Amino acid sequence: MRLTCPICKTVVEDAPEDLPTRPFCSKRCKLADLDNWLSDAYRISSPLRPTDTDDDELKLS
Ligand SMILES: [Zn+2]
Questions:
Q1: Is residue 9 part of a domain?
Q2: How many angstroms separate the alpha carbon of residue 41 from the centre of ligand 1?
Q3: 41 with 14: CB under 8 angstroms?
Q4: What is the SS3 assignment for 6?
Q5: 30 in a domain, yes or no?
Q6: Which terminus in the chain has less CB density within 10 A, N or C?
Q7: Domain tally for the chain?
Q8: Cα–Cα distance, 3 to 12 (Å, whole number)
Q9: Residue 40's domain spans which residues?
């Protein structure tokens, strides 16, 4: 499957479905997102999670 990293916008062709860093291209971006998420969690009580994976599922069907 093809995925676009929401952090650095890198397009990863042929990303395996069980990629541990999904929906990010790398562990670094996953950690960057976690950092963002934690920062938001301190600011607002109910942080929103990105729903980029929903788009991928739509393309498959
Ligand atoms: Zn990335």
A1: yes
A2: 21
A3: no
A4: coil
A5: yes
A6: C
A7: 1
A8: 5
A9: 3-46
